[in-house]
Amino acid sequence: xxxxxxxxxxxxxxxxxxxxxxxxxxxxxxxxxxxxxxxxxxxxxxxxxxxxxxxxxxxxxxxxxxxxxxxxxxxxxxxxxxxxxxxxxxxxxxxxxxxxxxxxxxxxxxxxxxxxxxxxxxxxxxxxxxxxxxxxxxxxxxxxxxxxxxxxxxxxxxxxxxxxxxxxxxxxxxxxxxxxxxxxxxxxxxxxxxxxxxxxxxxxxxxxxxxxxxxxxxxxxxxxxx
Length: 226
Hints:
The chain has helices spanning 3-22, 26-43, 65-73, 142-149, and strands at 51-53, 77-82, 91-95, 101-103, 109-111, 116-117, 121-125, 128-130, 135-136, 155-159, 165-166, 180-182, 187-191, 194-197. The chain is of the alpha/beta class and 226 residues long. The longest helix is centred in the first third of the chain and has 20 residues, at 3-22.
């Protein structure tokens, strides 16, 4: 495929996958989130150490905020990516409940003026993923630029759903693969031969649900009007 054909194919697949994801019901999303939460905590107990970066959920992405709340209670520092300018690397700013937020590209909120930090680990959402560990994002290329430019590369853990799997995204020279991937099925590690499934989900008990422990407004959302 030529670069222009790959661009068109990715755009088409992105549209298809987003349509499928947005068709998920609230109950299905809650079940997927709880299962992914459990796999992340079991596979990566060191997420509570150091600085973990996450993205505000967008269009039925896995909602990592509940896990982040638990990690912060265990001592982690949370951070979020910030778009500085088009076609430039992202920066990361510290996030905690009550921090002032602004609206960024695609309407996704970000910390407006909190301290800039360097994450140790990044929980990275995606539209699609392939068997070689490459990510199909939203087309802006921000994370690839960031990972290529960052001095101390963090461990990159992709988070997605099994239904978003592709045979290949037809990676280009600028595409940077994940280190790990976690879906509702379990955890994968990227080896030279591609993604290797690491978990036996039958060994997992029912995960805990943190939603009831979080007070309204914890994430900085605006209160609903009666």
